[in-house]
């Protein structure tokens, strides 16, 4: 008599393709939004300190939008797909900044930005997986 072995079904898994889709969506959102806002700011002449704040908000919104889109694409594990999308967005941005602007990045603000990227992406991912 043979014993029956139960095979445990694997739960939801991370989908790297969905994370990459989310990162691409985050950058697409950020570039389009920055271009539109840049044009508007050029027309109404906003002071430089305000421009920096506005562009930071656009970047943060891109992280959340990318998390939302990546998690919606995955359909499961919204917080994980979104968080990793936000993390990937920040890492790619930091690498590009260090290559294009050497010496411009400090470690502590970069670490805070990584945490913020994960958190905003996770929030966006949680929303994205639930609006299907």
Describe the structure.
The protein has helices spanning 16-44, 48-74, 78-100, 107-130. The protein has one domain. Helix 1 packs across helix 3 and helix 2 packs across helix 3 (78-100). The chain is mainly α and 132 residues long.
Count of folded domains? 1
Number of helices: 4
**Structural class given helices, strands, pairing?**
mainly alpha
Q: Please state the CA-atom Rg, rounded to the nearest Å.
A: 19 Å
Order of helices and strands: HHHH
Total beta strands: 0
Which stretches of 5+ consecutive residues score pLDDT under 50? none
**Mean pLDDT across all residues, rounded?**
86
> What fraction of the residues are assigned to beta strands by DSSP?
under 5%
**Global morphology:** elongated
Largest beta sheet, briefly? none
Task: Kindly state the percentage of residues in helix.
Answer: over 70%
Roughly how many Å apart are the termini?
48 Å
Fold topology:
Layout: H1 16-44, H2 48-74, H3 78-100, H4 107-130
Helix pairs in contact: 1-2, 1-3, 2-3, 2-4, 3-4
Q: What labels would you give this structure?
A:
mainly alpha, 132 residues
Question: Briefly, what is this?
Answer:
The protein is mainly alpha-helical. The protein is elongated.
């Amino acid at each position: 008599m043979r014993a029956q072995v139960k095979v445990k079904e694997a739960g939801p898994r991370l989908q790297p393709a969905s994370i990459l889709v989310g990162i691409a969506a985050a950058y697409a959102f950020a570039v389009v939004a920055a271009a539109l806002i840049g044009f508007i700011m050029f027309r109404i002449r906003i002071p430089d300190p305000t421009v920096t704040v506005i562009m930071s908000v656009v970047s943060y919104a891109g992280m959340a939008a990318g998390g939302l889109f990546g998690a919606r694409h995955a359909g499961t594990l919204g917080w994980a797909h979104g968080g990793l999308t936000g993390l990937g967005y920040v890492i790619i941005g930091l690498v590009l900044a260090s290559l294009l602007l050497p010496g411009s990045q400090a470690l502590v603000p970069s670490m805070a930005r990584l945490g913020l990227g994960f958190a905003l992406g996770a929030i966006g991912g949680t929303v994205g997986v639930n609006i299907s």
